[in-house]
Amino acid sequence: MPPLTKLSSDALDDEGRGYPRPLLRRESWYSLNGRWEFALDPAGVWRLAEQVDCHDVIRVPFTPETAASGIGNTGFYRCCWYRRRFEVPPIADGERLILHFCAVDYSTRVWVNGVLVGRHEGGYTPFSFDITGLITERRECELIVQAEDDPLDLGKPRGKQDWQLEPHSIWYPRTTGIWQTVWMEVVPATAIRRMSFTPNLARWEMGVGCWIDGLVREPLRLCVTLTSRGT
Q1: Does the pLDDT value for residue 125 go beyond 70?
Q2: Cis peptide before 90, with omega less than 30 degrees from 0?
Q3: Cβ–Cβ < 8 Å for 83, 54
Q4: pLDDT above 90 for 165
Q5: Mind listing the pLDDT tens digit for each residue in 92-108?
Q6: Percent of the chain as helix, strand, coil, to the nearest 5
Q7: Average pLDDT, integer, range 193-221
Q8: Helix, strand or coil, per DSSP, at residue 219
Q9: DSSP secondary structure string for all residues of 10-37
Q10: Alpha-carbon torsion 134, 136, 142, 143, what sign?
Q11: Sheet holding 182-187: strands in order across?
């Protein structure tokens, strides 16, 4: 299994994609964009990862409808499957390995080394999984992703994706599966997962919200410094 390449926070990966979370940068990241094994499942008959026969190759994060993906299939299909095998980076005691998906359209299931680690619904929002406990001492990882997106379902959020075989009027071609960066990062046992900022102009105040992931420990303090025009 090939090892992943450690990238600095200002580096681009082989697909020309940069660090996918610019507001909360860490020093390094690992891109999973590039060549994946791939299979279309037009009727959605496969339900288990071991049933899948990935006989094609796709370039992530380009969708199978696009020519850039290497697939270029603009027909109707309910599901598609991805598989990639690689060697994960070293993880020190107390550190955690987080797998991120920036966006997959529409309903997603993810397996790591044969274990279903989670599901996600929604084609426009990022999601992630802590996969530390599923990595063996040999650091081998088999990642399988199922993306289900019924092209005829008009009830789910679809933006301007067309439900007809050929785009018409103001509607765009359909998008299925992984369409944004897939990546990994190594984080401490206790790490910041998300932050929010709420301004109050009348009182010249800024509210800060911080969500912490991982090990709960005391005491834990957060220091926030706000600057304006360098001061």
Answers
A1: yes
A2: no
A3: yes
A4: no
A5: 888 999 999 999 999 99
A6: 5, 40, 55
A7: 88
A8: coil
A9: T---TTS---S-TTS--SEEEE--EEEE
A10: positive
A11: 6-8, 28-31, 182-187, 96-101, 127-130
Q: SS3 of 49, please?
A: helix
Q: Give yes or no for residue 168 having a pLDDT over 80.
A: no
In DSSP terms, 54 is beta-bridged to none
Sequence-separated (6 or more) residues with CB below 8 Å from residue 180: 20, 61, 101, 102, 103, 104, 126
Yes or no: say if 172 and 160 are a contact pair by the CB < 8 Å rule. yes
**What is residue 216's predicted lDDT score, i.e. its pLDDT?**
80
Determine whether 213 is exposed, middle or buried from the number of CB atoms within 10 Å of its CB (0-12, 13-18, 19+): middle
pLDDT at 150 over 90: no
**DSSP code string of 102-138:** S-EESEEEEEETTEEEEEEE-SSS-EEEE-GGG--TT
Query: What is the distance between the alpha carbons of residues 187 and 94, in angstroms, rounded to a whole number?
Result: 9
- Contact (CB, 8 A) for 119 and 125: no
Burial 3-42 (b: 16+ CB within 10 A, else e): ebeebeeeeebeeebebbbeeeeeeebbbbbbebbbbbbe
The token pair at 116 is: 């279903």
